[in-house]
Amino acid sequence: MKNAAGLSGHPPVATAAAGRAAASHSAAPDSAASQPAASDLSTRDRVTRLLLERGATTAAQLGDALGLSPAAIRRHLDAMLADGDVTAREQVVRGSRGRGRPAKVFLLTDAARGRCGTHHYDNMATAALRWIARNGGSDAVEAFATDQVAALETRCRAAMEDAGDDPLARAEALAGALTAEGYAANASTIASGGQLCQHHCPVAHVAAEFPQLCEAETAVISRLVGTHVQRLATIAHGDGVCTTHIPAQSGRAKSGKTVTTVRTDR
């Protein structure tokens, strides 16, 4: 190799300084490499949002929805697993299934879910409910929970004013109203009726200890859709999504007490 000083005309001291500067610049990418690229962060945000909306989802489903190759989606999921943003578990298959191991599904962790919404003052809310339970008993906690969802019911009822009387149509309107409230909800028609899914719960951590909050919310859903409903799963109990089944029936719920909670994942 020819002498760099001879080619540039710079004295050796200047050449050494340039070499040190070049070494400094060459070291910078090493430190930057430890940080995710902006495009990676953008894709990870999209993965997070999709998991928030859908709940437990396979890598293949995520890749298809985001237009990513299997290798690319695995790279993002591996990074999110390492960072504690997602967990993986075997997919629950009801009924007969084909050969081979069940596919893995990925879910947001509580920490990642908390960053997607508002979980302010969880500790204080839990402490307050413990005080109510000690001094007033479970009836007082239930009364408190009912009072807390009353305003939500009023707002959702106003948003559903033009939804008509059909429970499934009302469930779809309710999903839109709940999404506006921050619940990331959607409704769908299934063979046995309808299903309302809420992919975010603002009080999940508190409701894990005080299920009366979930029960009061389910009673609101029953009154708003106008029929008996069954709560199949809740985020507060470790499920990826709060799922409420709306049976195909003509009867209408007369009160929030027409609620049934059925756990199908345990």
DSSP strand content? 5-15%
Q: What is the count of β-strands?
A: 8
Main sheet: strands, sense, barrel: 5 strands, mixed
Q: What's the rounded overall pLDDT mean?
A: 78
Low-confidence stretches: 1-34, 251-266
CA-based shape: globular
Order of strands across the widest beta sheet? 4-5-7-6-8
Span between termini = 71 Å
H/I helix tally: 10
Order of secondary-structure elements: HHHEHHEEHHHEEHHEEE
Radius of gyration: 26 Å
Structural class: alpha+beta
Percent of residues in helices comes to: 40-55%
Describe what this molecule looks like in 3D.
The strands form two sheets. The protein has a five-stranded mixed sheet. The chain is 53% helix and 14% strand. The protein is of the alpha+beta class. It contains ten helices and eight strands. Helix 7 (122-159) crosses helix 8.
Which descriptors would you attach to this protein?
10 helices; globular; five-stranded mixed beta sheet; 53% helix; alpha+beta; disordered N terminus; 266 residues
